[in-house]
Amino acid sequence: MEIVLFLFIAPVLAAVIQPAIRTIRSRSIAAVGSAIVISGGVIALFFLDIKESPAFFTAHSNAVNMAVLAGEILLSVYVVITGLKHKRYLAVLLMLAQIAIILGLELFYGDRLSAAHNLFLDRFSIIMAFIIGIIGSLIMVYACGYMKDFHTQHPEVRDRSSFFFIVCYLFLASMFVLVFANNLVWLHFCWELTTLASFLLIGYADTDEAVNNAFTALTMNLLGGLAFAGGIAYLCVAHGIVELDRLLAMNKYSVVLPVVLLSLAGITKSAQLPFSGWLLGAMVAPTPSSALLHSSTMVKAGVYLLLRLSPLLAHTLTGSMVTLVGGASFLVASLIAVSQRNAKWVLAYSTVANLGLIVACAGIGSAGTLWAGIFLILFHAVAKSLLFQSVGTVEHRLHSRDIEDMDNLINRMPRVTAMMVVGISGMFLAPFGMLISKWAALKAFIDIDSMLGLVLIVLLSYGSAATLFFWTKWMGKIISMKNKKIESGNMDAAVSRQELSSESIHAVLTVVLCLAFPLISQLLVEPYVSRISGIDYGIARGNYVIMGIMVSMLIALPVIIIRLQRHAQFVMSDGYTSGHTVSSDRHYIGSLGIDRKISMKNIYMKEYFGEKKIFAAGTAAGILFIIAMVAGALI
Amino acid sequence: MKIILGVILYIVAAPLVGGILAGIDRVLSAKLQSRVGPPLLQPFYDVLKLFEKRTMIVNRFQNAYAWCHVIFMAMTGAFFFEGGDILLAVFALTLAGIFLILGAYSSNSPYSYLGAERELVLMLAYEPMVILTMVGMYMVAQSFSFMEIAASQRPIILYLPGVFLGFLYILPMKLRKSPFDISSSHHAHQELVRGLTSDFSGSMLALIEIAHWYETTLLLGLVYLFFSFNPVVGVCAAFGTYFLGILVDNSYARLKWELAFTSAWGIALVLGGGNLAILYFIAGG
Prior knowledge:
The structure holds two protein chains of two kinds. By secondary structure, chain A is an all-alpha fold. Chain A has a domain at 314-565 and 580-635. Helices cover 73% and strands 3% of the residues of chain A. Chain A contains 25 helices and six strands. Chain A has helices at residues 2-17, 24-49, 62-85, 89-109, 123-153, 161-180, 184-202, 208-239, 244-249, 256-269, 277-281, 287-296, 299-313, 317-338, 343-364, 367-398, 409-412, 414-428, 433-447, 451-479, 497-515, 517-533, 541-564, 606-609, 611-634, and strands spanning 55-57, 119-121, 571-572, 580-583, 587-589, 595-597. In chain A, a hairpin with a 5-residue loop joins strand 5 and strand 6 (595-597). In chain A, helix 5 runs parallel beside helix 16, helix 13 packs parallel to helix 15 and helix 15 (343-364) packs antiparallel against helix 20 (451-479). The model of chain A has no long low-confidence stretch (mean pLDDT 89). In chain B, helix 1 packs across helix 3 and helix 8 packs antiparallel against helix 11. Helix content of chain B is 75%, strand content 1%. By secondary structure, chain B is mainly alpha-helical. Chain B has one domain (2-284). At the A-B interface, helix 19, helix 20, helix 23 and strand 3 of A face strand 1, helix 3, helix 4, helix 5 and helix 11 of B.
């Protein structure tokens, strides 16, 4: 309990001290300090509280409930004023409807709103805390270096760095409460806080595009927030409950409508079709906030809620529709990612895809899918955060996010390229975490033994093929190598220490998590899944051995081979160009002795995977499934 | 102990089987083209010769990629015999393939680069069918273990005729044979510069050739699984498939990558997905 409070207070304190900070140096010290303190808290949580989990805390206090209410009112006043100022009436309307529901509940059913247990803690929250605390606070360290470069390179953007850091730390604080909240009203308040925080971060640059996209994000998430509020109101009025644990203990057929509403909230927040637009628009924000939104906060709140609800979703129409929304998002986003050359867009679509897989797992709600879903959250957070950071770093050096401009990156920025390669491998290669989780998901889909399972298997097999394709061609681009003889200046030196250190820790984490994966599974995930599903769930030990062998080999082999061949004599030559090569920079002497340059571009298959067409189809499918879900609940 | 022996046996025997098959391929192809052709053991002489040659490299990472390619390829087969999960093994096979592609990318030459891209397109094309095949095997044999599937008394082919045909269709892509030899071809009359492997030479090229033998054996092992209810039929089917491959290789011109990709995805959906849907339907009804 104390540690849970500590995890909330630490980022709040980090936010509070920001206005007093004047120099980059002191900001970095503060960021590193808070990273250590928060990570320490998370580790303490793991070691001290794991035995007593699941634990429920009363934490009863009228003052807190009042503060939450006051917070909700303040938040809505701010959104209404901002919305009116920018003439975004839909957002204003959604906000007003939502606050009306909350106030109405408070006025007429105030006595039912006090929860027996406001906070709780179990193994799933510990994993979430790990992601929020460690990944989130590392991103803040990275941001110290990044924001400095950002403002040097974008003089047109007003420097509001302190504001940026304040919002980010408050974001982390509200995420912590979100994963520990048992009181749905508290959970909803934090839910709305994260919506507001991402609105502020997306709008940071204050350009027309930024403001536009920020409002898109706000509107879509307010729609989810409204559904959330509606769900709470229904639960409170019809069943007299405001606690998550009591909701989960209900018969799933008596709470169909509130579960539909909460799922809708989860789907909007995790940017599933047809609500993916806001996350793609969020790309205008500075990279650290993208990293936050995509890995440790925001979208992870959506899938967190859905996975929590998954026992209520299993074997219901709602669950099937949630699964189909997730499956469609996975396929559509994976296919579109093939046609993207902007690195950040590839990352964004891949996030939508992976979240889709998690959502599909949540909708199925079997022990296997729950296991896979939780691991997907964990591994995705680490690898995606690493990738966003390295793309941000590269962008500041090359002044481009275009993957085509990253030719021979290994010569120009070897260290950052190494990080990127680890990140990309972490996203799709065996035996790294994401692929292992996908493998588990695939098996779980087979085991549910229904037509829905088959649909998912087909979606997964096609989506995975596309995933394989777009990651490998990106990786190939950055590792294609000019001959060592021609040095082209190492740009790693210009990368800030904060960025490099955060990226290095992420890269190490990506690998270590894979090695520690059986341990994490046994200590955290399997007990949680067994408790929720009521069956003793475990992965066959033989597979752990195989994965362990593969990870170790993957790390050791390249090093060993290169070391062994250190003294071997090879004839160094240049890449074959069917003519006389001038330099390994893809120049050759053509006819008449003219020096010619060759340039190689990747395949994007736009005629098959064009964004507009596929996205429109996916949106239509998403709307259809959601209508079916809502209609099913009303009938 | 038995497992270790099995793994060692596989690691030693698989390239021998693959090499002899490659030899048969060359003898038969020569007959089909009314040439005298090389002796049966020519592939082994070639590889031994390659080891003798000077190895020209563009960068030292290339060697690491080539070695990882062959080691992971051998390991994939070992996983099968260890009784491991066939899905995991297929992912390991993909990893091995990725190493070869990365090796080609790494050399920075336009020929290798194009070969790598095209191999990647082929991977995109065949991957769905491979996964659906594994899922189908599991559905029929109720096990992901290679050994248990092989020991299953059920005639898998009767349950999965569509999946089998789909798998046959993508097999030439995996073996880089015509009509899908778009990333690299072994027909000398078609090209001298071999796409994917343009910048590998000497011992590194030899390693890639050995990896290819492993892969051939492994894939024919998968074909065998469809007929494993009767080992004799199974072995005959596996070899028959290979000869069919040689025949097709010699009688069809190369397809464009667009057609390779669209047809493979379509066939995987109709034959693979359709077959599995019928299985689900029967099991459910």
